User: Fold this.
Amino acid sequence: MVDTADGPGVLKVFASPRARGNDRRLRALAEVLPNQVPTPRGVDQQGHVSLVSFTEGTVFDQLDDHEFVRSAPLVGGALGSFHRSGAVLDRCWTIDEELTQLGRRFPENVSALVTSSIEARDDLAAAELVSAHRDCHPRQVVVQGDTVTWIDLDDAAMAPAALDVGNFVAHLRRDAVIAARDRSATDAAIDGFLAGYGATPTGTDDWERLSLARLSGLAVQRHHQPDWAAAIEQLLQP
Assistant:
């Protein structure tokens, strides 16, 4: 966090010159969702550094169980507003890009999980694209009272709504099976999140399973927790 004349901000530095594209997409979102995303404040000419406003509040997955469950419908509603905002972003992400990335990043055993997780690839490929967060999980949303703000929008793209919904739910289920959150609170939060969102997008179950397969791979590669991976993979069993 840095202090600026406009208040506290978050300075982001990238090895590649991706800051300009991130800034463009955030501006498109901020124009239609001024209270639900950070305010873009500028980018350097080379495209390696950007500045956005700092978001006050508590990250969703750091709330106590009571507030976690209470605010879940608000989070679901905020994601629904995000998807219905009408913002047009200059990047697309479909099931084809997702599968390519998963195949590149993870070992053969996770690739097998991914393959077995998809029931209707053609249907997923035909899904309507909406403005989506694309890295949508409980650490990407800040809650302050009844105000919900999405943060870290560097991966935002036009994508299927089910991608975000499935990914968010998958993270909640993962936290329950690795004992990062009480199971009953998690179940209540999932119900509240989905109720707040509205009609569940077609393909959500498939995207959730894809996210669980990815989380299984990350449990080993990033967190060095094979026990987590085994617990997550149990969620993928028929």
Q: What stands out?
A: The chain has two domains: 2-53, 58-234. Strands lie at 2-4, 7-13, 40-43, 49-53, 58-59, 129-132, 141-144, 147-150, 157-160. The mean pLDDT is 92. The first strand starts at residue 2 and ends at 4.
